[in-house]
Amino acid sequence: MNTADFDFALPEELIAQQPPKQRGESRMMVIDRASRTIEHRQFRDFPSYVGADDLLVLNDTRVVPARFFSNDGSSEILRVEPITDRRWKCLVKPGKKFKPGRTVEIGDSTGTVLEICDPGGERIIEFDEAPDESVHGHLALPPYIARPDTAEDRDRYQTVYAREEGAIAAPTAGLHFSEETLEKFPHTFVTLHVGIGTFRPVSVDDVTEHHMHSEKFALREDTISAIQKARRTIAIGTTVVRVLESCGASGGKAGLKPQNGETDIFIYPPYEFQVVDALLTNFHLPKSTLLMLVSALADRELMLEAYARAVEERYRFFSYGDCMLIL
Fold first, then answer.
1. For 89-93, which contacts have Cβ atoms below 8 Å and span 24 or more sequence positions?
2. Would you say residue 12 has pLDDT above 90?
3. Which end of the chain, N or C, is more open, meaning fewer C-beta atoms within 10 Å of its C-beta?
4. CATH architecture of 3-63+142-326
């Protein structure tokens, strides 16, 4: 299967640059896999698709302000992984300037480049004191949001149930839920700290040659118990899918065990899902690993038809956009 098999034309004006005025004021496309039908609904209709014995599983990771700028404004650092409070693995701009021994000042902190990682090109930077992220840190909004982050993003680019700090990017399907909406459903949580891999395009022609970045996750006993008792497991977002399918790969729902680990699972057609029965997700980038994942669940041809209709109907795309329910 080729990366080009997951391409579609997307007018730039359909990429949402701002969140809706209120959480949940989004449109929702509904895909029924059995009947191969596509409906145009609103997110407020979501409860009508959830039974009393169904279970929502959400990702409770919390986005941290991981983007920093040098005092002179010439350089940008994205903290990919904090090795210690003062030693970080980072992506940097411009890369040519960040050679070993190079220093960068952020507020009152001075960082020194220790090494360049191979093959990703990340830098290990050690600071004399940890930069104050509450003062100097910015949210790493996705590159398709063509504006700086704002105070509003600190609230809206975060789920209302976020609690486990560590993500660079938000699990965006969860952004549609207000606290009041979430209380209507039986629900439980997993944790997956969304990393830089969410921004990286597939650069190979053959899908099977793409390598996913690993991301840290946690699956708890109470979540497993709730999943095993439920009629259907409805994943809220692709990050939840990656956790549950990683942990259920060998034994399905019955084989789930509590664990903390890392996953680099890459789901693309054909794939037989072991734990997830339905999925709420936002619309994804052309030729992306996430579009491949939803195509594995709903069938590639049906998914591309749905995306074509979403463009025709002027749905709002990506992180702050509308959503899709796959049943």
1. 89/117, 89/122, 89/123, 89/124, 90/122, 90/123, 90/124, 90/125, 91/121, 91/122, 91/123, 91/196, 92/123, 92/125
2. yes
3. N
4. 3-Layer(aba) Sandwich (3.40)
